[in-house]
Amino acid sequence: MDxxxxxxxVCASFRADGEAKGMCNKKGSIGFLPYIENExxxxxxxxxxxxxxxxxACDHGPVMIIYPEGHxxxxxxxxxxxxxxxxxxxxxxxxxxxxxx
Length: 101
Ligand code: FES
Description:
Blueprint: E1 6-14, H1 23-26, H2 32-43, E2 47-53, E3 64-67, E4 71-73, H3 79-90
Bound molecules: FE2/S2 (inorganic) cluster.
């Protein structure tokens, strides 16, 4: 397996006991995973998406983090937000309006 150039982490609110309990899950973060997967393929991005446990940034949820850029994004509440962030990733830029400072 080749390592992806970009790794997109989407908070699925998993707690230590495996229970998906938290703001990101309540706001539908898991529903974005297939959309992001499809966008990666459609855009030909060298990227992988992975769901995670709580990122401890619940107030900003749903949260999505991209490495190695180290960009933490919040308030990902619809596909338009995902599109804006992936557009910025493709252009080597930052989607400022969703950035968690
Ligand atoms: S539940 Fe997503 S950051 Fe805590």
